[in-house]
Amino acid sequence: MKKMLLLAVLSVVVFVGCVERKDQEQRSTQFRRISVDEYLDKMKGGWVGQMAGVGWGGPTEFKWKGKIMPAEKMPKWTPERINQFGQDDIYVEMTFIRTLQQYGFDVDIRQAGIDFANSGYGLAHANHYGRDNLRKGIAPPDSGHPKFTDHADDIDYQIEADYSGLIAPGMPNLVIELGEKFGRLMNYGDGLYGGQFVGGMYAEAFFEKDMQKIVHAGLACIPAGSQYAECIRDVIKWHSENPDNWQKTWHLIEAKYQDNPDYRMASCDKGNFNIDAKINGAYIVMGLLYGEGDIDKTITISTRCGQDSDCNPSNAAGVLCTMIGFKNLPDKFKSALDPNGKFSHSPYTFPKMIEVSAQLVRDAVIRQGGRIEKDQDGKEVFVIAAQTPKPSKLEQCWAPGAIAGSKFTDAEMKKIKYSAAFPTGKIFPGWRIIDCGKKMNPGLRDAFGGKKNVIVTYPVDRETGSKISGRISIPKNKKTTLALVVGHHPKGDWDLIVKLKHGKELFRTPVGKDTAKDGWLETEVDLSEFAGKRARIELVNQSNGGEYEAAYWAKIDIVSE
């Protein structure tokens, strides 16, 4: 009897032990663990990777469209290039981070829209038109709907979605949710999916070393039936067929996603210039797969693919450097990082932005069903609930669904108080803008085309140019010239006129690809005939009847010798 009782007890113990082991095995598959220290190191690496990619590729942006950039044209890396605090590829993310810091992850999309509408930095494409819609009272998600913008398939949310994965390690559904909240402000369909794909790769890079698996994790975050997903699947397939020849894969991408109109049905441009999210997303993956875990090679390949060749290496390097971690990055990517540099139009220095990201992720872990524990050494560990991605619904910009009919209330519109002032005098003392149109977001750009502190103007209409006016004194017995450096949009041109106010024309020239080397025209206008006099000079950004006629003013200077 005692023997039978003992066997029964042992059976219960064994059974309980088996159940406990099974429970432990289930828990181990249901949660992913990463120490807080390791998370912080990888998150910091991801932010640095973004800055490295955009800093290195910046001088090449849209200079190679529909062709591979020659290897000898790749800029040389210098450590100072890391300080990309004025790059639109990064500073837009700071607006989203700020909204999350102030209101938390449950912030309403309308508040996110108000915050974005109040941003003061320069924007283009989907970002620009989405923000314009918000400022007009078109509330999200309609602000990014194809009915109200021709740019909904553009690259914009893809550029700025890095933040979503960096504060959501191993949490792809939070990445998708953040896309629905912030990506909808300016994008729709593939334009939205591009950001969710990038964010999904970041989220996985905290746990995975195999780049193929990281790319597949991003792919799992978007609708399988989308053209964007098809594009990424193609790149994966072509890479497997041509593992040692990225240029052959590039030509396959070009033939299908650049030259085939069926894959550009919602592109805002139909020529070699291609801002569509799909093809630029392909170039991100090109760098990640063919880069073989090497930062230099990854950035170089994504850059040499062309088109938006600073944004794409920025995304690629960010994902890779998240996987690598900050402490393992080569010194050349972190030795010159300025801890006091502040991201444009934000309250964040680099250390402060890392601090805020570290605060947000703690909320994210708890919110997504995880917890924060301490290990046997007393160090904190994130225990993150494993997730199966649940992608957004399938939408197509060329056949969009119905609008939400969403408009800001009068009370909400009163909260939109962005400043449209032009700080011309701080940049060009003695000169002021007296006429300017509203298209293409005129104002100050912290950086454009490799130059800093650039003023942007746009003609009032086809007949009336934008004018920058200055009253200047011309010294006697000296040769005096007006020195100008002016630029143009990659897709546009305009006429530069220098004239006396209400008087004669002194100079006129077109500013476009035929006259402006590398996008910039340097010229001088002789003012010696006015020696000893004061003159009111007007610099006119005159329409020539085209589109994208913004003028970019990098230098206005009176030189006497």
Question: Mind explaining what this structure looks like?
Answer:
The protein is of the alpha+beta class. Helix content is 40%, strand content 16%. The chain has 2 domains: 355 residues, Orthogonal Bundle (ADP-ribosylglycohydrolase fold), CATH 1.10.4080.10; 137 residues, Jelly Rolls. The protein has 18 helices and 13 strands. It has a 5-stranded antiparallel sheet, with no helix packed on it. Strands 5-6-13-8-11 form a 5-stranded antiparallel sheet, with no helix packed on it. A 3-stranded antiparallel sheet has the order 1-3-2. A hairpin with a 5-residue loop joins strand 2 and strand 3. Helix 3 crosses helix 16, helix 9 packs parallel to helix 15 and helix 11 runs parallel beside helix 13. The longest helix is centred in the N-terminal third of the chain and has 29 residues. It is globular.
